Amino acid sequence: MKLQDIREKSVDELNALVLDKKKELFDLRLQKSTNKLENPASIANTKRTIAQIKTVIKEKEAANA
Questions:
Q1: pTM, entire model
Q2: Segments of the chain assigned E as strands
Q3: DSSP string covering the chain, please?
Q4: How far apart are CA 63 and CA 65, in angstroms?
Q5: What integer pLDDT is reported at residue 8 of this predicted model?
């Protein structure tokens, strides 16, 4: 997901997206523990996406305050 796409969403949509990405991260970690993960870099990419989303949420909250 591109940062521009993230910035276009509302705070509620972003919060829902964070929950979705956290579930995805849990599934990836589970696959890693059972040696079924094909792309280990996907864990790092998912973590990075979560951090980007949280940063945009904080920016939007600071702009509204």
A1: 0.93
A2: none
A3: --HHHHHHS-HHHHHHHHHHHHHHHHHHHHHHHTT--S-THHHHHHHHHHHHHHHHHHHHHHHH-
A4: 6
A5: 96
